[in-house]
Amino acid sequence: xxxxxxxxxxxxxxxxxxxxxxxxxxxxxxxxxxxxxxxxxxxxxxxxxxxxxxxxxxxxxxxxxxxxxxxxxxxxxxxxxxxxxxxxxxxxxxxxxxxxxxxxxxxxxxxxxxxxxxxxxxxxxxxxxxxxxxxxxxxxxxxxxxxxxxxxxxxxxxxxxxxxxxxxxxxxxxxxxxxxxxxxxxxxxxxxxxxxxxxxxxxxxxxxxxxxxxxxxxxxxxxxxxxxxxxxxxxxxxxxxxxxxxxxxxxxxxxxxxxxxxxxxxxxxxxxxxxxxxxxxxxxxxxxxxxxxxxxxxxxxxxxxxxxxxxxxxxxxxxxxxxxxxxxxxxxxxxxxxxxxxxxxxxxxxxxxxxxxxxxxxxxxxxxxxxxxxxxxxxxxxxxxxxxxxx
Length: 391
Known about the structure:
14% of the residues lie in helices and 40% in strands.
């Protein structure tokens, strides 16, 4: 009886173990191991190969039958290309477009729907542009400027009207504290295309400004392309301004809205009255030869002046005029505001680049074009906004 019970238990145990083995085998057969699963298919556009990739498009990565877990893109200078992964992990798109004549390396990691991980690497090179459009900017990086200074970007080559909206969208201005402003397209006095950003009203002193231009790979038209991004910043300094009252031969200096001094001088004669409105100091020169031929007066004079503060590109300046014996008595210049040498230095030192000089009560009714210097304050805010390419 003992032996019989032991026999029956052994038989039952064998049956249980056999059943467990069969279940285990069935489980493995239905799911398989991850090594047996197909990997996710990863597609990179532009594709790698011997043919140069066309310009004008972003870099995109797509995963089929799986998700992307990592995407890293670098150019041939080692720069990392930023981008965004979709919410479901099925695709990644670069923030900008491919730059001309650049080699990109795209490295990805993906996970299939069955759990298999895989790595991919793709390399492609882009076409060469017919010409590369470059730019120069004011203010310069790290500069401290006056409260009337616009952000001014001058292009080496034209920017066609049908490409301006895309260029404008790629330019981002960040300020601390927040300042309202807008971009406007301008024809520079040199004849080149320009885009300026001006605040609605004058900058608050101490404002920190950052400008980022994600222009790399953007078409500017007529075979021109931008080949790099731009990044610069500047600071707004003390609030210094000047107001010239033409009939009284007087320039008043203001700091933080309060008068802090006056300077007597001679403005333009009745035949060449000084341009009116609000001008922005665009540059300065400690010593300069005043050449009549540069402002349309032929070879009438060639005079050496000191402490020259430039307003318009066409030749409206503040400067010393030691040759003038009627300073502060008669308006007899060819459109500038002439002063004694010591007073010209006072104005030169007080007015930083980007500060404003307003000319009041002049007989000159000629409109000063925005591109004739940094003349963004010659227009109202409503007029300025119409210059934007973004409707």
